[in-house]
Amino acid sequence: MSDAPRTGPDAPEPRRAHRPVPIADPTDLIDAALDRSGQTQSELASSTAAAVLGAARGQLGGGDGLDPARLLDLSEAVGLDTLAQLWRDSPPDTLPGALWALYLLRAWCRVNGEEVARLWRAGRALAPADEVVAGVSDDADPQALETLADAVLGGAYSGDFAVGLERAASFFRVVAAGRRAIAPDTATSLLTGAPDPQLMLAERNERVAVGLTRAAALWRVGRLH
């Protein structure tokens, strides 16, 4: 019996070799992961998130890691829709879910800065401890909030990742408080027979904040994946 490999239509498909990832280009980390077959959606989310964070911290390919400024623009380089496809369905207390929350926060501050500033100003007096942790400057204008989002994402890559997650969690709590502050009163909601959209979004923001706080705790004990 020959040991030669089978050929023809019924032959097993050869394993595809993973192409090397050039550490100089962070978008190739995403491209390489998307090029791999045999991963579930959850595995793909985890592997791409780990690759991006590992590259930032010099854990892939040696060296001192990628410039965090380049990773700040990852959503623009590969498209926010691509990151959403990879990470959006992951809970915020997982690594891909936490990174998605940070990129979404940055995109929101950049695109809808006036709205974010309005919510922040409405909520900060109601969540003073979270205002301090988040670290927004006193004027809290759109530029200040965009600066915060950049600092949180950049700090997560180059500094203490858990601290970055906690700052983002505090940000979402202040915004949730702001949404509740500007929402119509309960009597108005009862009259309309429908929950106010701001209250629904506030609950969503709170869930993200809880997830990011849990993710920070998991990171500190080496269990965030």
Walk me through this protein's architecture:
With 225 residues, the protein is mainly alpha-helical. It has one domain. Helix content is 66%, strand content 0%. It has twelve helices and no strands. α2 packs across α6, α9 packs antiparallel against α10 (161-182) and α10 (161-182) runs antiparallel to α12 (197-220). Mean pLDDT is 82; it is low at 1-24.
Overall geometry comes to globular
Which whole number gives the mean pLDDT? Answer: 82
| Helical content class | 55-70%
Tally of domains: 1
| Helix and strand pattern | HHHHHHHHHHHH
Beta-strand content bin: under 5%
In total, how many beta strands?
Answer: 0
Class inferred from helices and paired strands: mainly alpha
Largest sheet features: none
Low-pLDDT ranges:
1-24
Count of helical segments? 12
Question: Regarding quaternary structure, how should these chains be classified?
Answer: single chain
Query: Which value, in Å, is the CA radius of gyration?
Result: 21 Å
